[in-house]
Amino acid sequence: MKTKKLIVIYPYKFSDFLWKLLELEELSKYVEVIVWDVSKISSPRFSSQIVGKLTPRDQIIRLESIVSFNSKLKNLLSENNEEDICILNEIPQGNYRDFILNAFLSFKLQGKEVKVFDLYNGGVLIHSAGPVDEFGRKSIMQRFISVVKLSSSLKEFLRKFSSYTFNKLGEFFSKPLTHRLVAGEVWKSEAKRGVSQGVRIIEGHSHDYSTYLREVHSRNRSESIGLATLLDGAGPYFQSDALLTGRKVYFTSEVWYPALSNFFEFLESDRQLTVRVAGHYKTNFDSPSLLFGNREVIYGRTPELVASSKFVITRISTAISFAVLYKKPIIFIYSDQLLKDSEFMSQIISISNVLGTSPINIDHFPTNLESYLRVNEDKYKRYTLDFLTSKPNGVPNYRIILQDIMGVKVAN
């Protein structure tokens, strides 16, 4: 019988993709895993409009109020030994609902022997919008100026200001944490922000790097001939994180997808290959999809798709990690419509510079792509160490969580 419990508290609609991303299947082989989906408390409007595959699982409990949250927490503490409980607290400090949930959790766990950790392993540049250094970092003044200049509306500015305010409040009323798992030197350098001095920093990986460690030994790494993959985002056809941030959506389905299909046709003719789409987990396209020019849309197999591709195409996606790890060229793309989105353009220019390339406007793309299909191995290696892993030769995150946080022995 499993005596130790891992409770995952998640602020957005919990999907099958997230079950896999957080390695809960592997963790559940050693400890009892239960997910508390608090999206109806933390982000009700955003979560209600996000699509994605949701397979019913007994381990996923969807809580709808502070009262139900309190009841679950009270039962958890009364029915188990404190030292057998570990909580992965994924609630940010982004709004007053998050702040209340974190404050409530902190109050209830005060003086308890419960282990609580969060993940500081985004796998992307930090503060990439606005003037940055080569690592995508900005000074405090640069961040403030960027927020003012790059906000697309008063609504977005107020939400950013609210998020900043509650994050600062969180530095005085810290999230209840005993551990923080971090990935990459740049993330590690900022990992102690907003946490108390007693929090243990645990070195680990981004989700994608950990997936890479779990899957690389079982995969045939030989390159498939004649394939390229689009790492797709949620928008513009489906709702994206703009719904949460209040940001204006600058591009439309009527313009974006025809231009994208036209670019794919050129790539397929010029490079003698077939483009397929790695579907974003917040979308639900048919396959093949007319929006993508009747091309195949594949879900849940992104690492495999990238490993077997000659190169990948993307606006911006954390899944470029797989391209970096498998040393695949990355074509970053934008459009005339997206040129009006100063924050997006700042981000895409920053990340492409860090990886040694330049983005392409699919409304006016070059016919010679040779310079875009090269890999700068030194920059890829540096990106890996700065943003993807703090233990390049380590074991996957689930083993680190079990051994270094929960104290569970795992056989080699």
In short:
This protein has 412 residues and is α/β, with parallel strands linked by helices. The protein has helices at 16-21, 24-27, 39-42, 44-48, 66-79, 96-109, 140-150, 154-172, 185-189, 207-215, 242-245, 253-271, 302-307, 320-325, 342-354, 377-388, 397-405; strands spanning 5-10, 32-37, 60-62, 85-89, 115-120, 179-182, 200-203, 227-231, 274-278, 297-298, 311-314, 330-334, 360-361.
- State the helicity in percent bands: 25-40%
Main sheet strand line-up? 3-2-1-4-5-6-7
Could you say what the CATH topology of the largest domain is called? Rossmann fold
Tell me about the largest β-sheet. Answer: 7 strands, parallel
| Poorly predicted sequence stretches spanning 5 or more consecutive residues | 128-136
User: Which series of helices and strands comes N to C?
Assistant: EHHEHHEHEHEHHEHEHEHHEEHEHEHEHH
Written overview of the protein:
With about 400 residues, the protein is an alpha/beta fold. It has two domains: about 5-125 and about 165-205 and about 390-405, Rossmann fold (3-Layer(aba) Sandwich); about 215-385, Rossmann fold (3-Layer(aba) Sandwich), CATH 3.40.50. It has 17 helices and 13 strands. The strands form two sheets. Strands 3-2-1-4-5-6-7 form a seven-stranded parallel sheet, with helices on both faces. A six-stranded parallel sheet has the order 10-9-8-11-12-13. Strand 11, helix 14 (about 320-325) and strand 12 (about 330-335) form a beta-alpha-beta unit. Residues about 130-135 have low confidence and may be disordered.
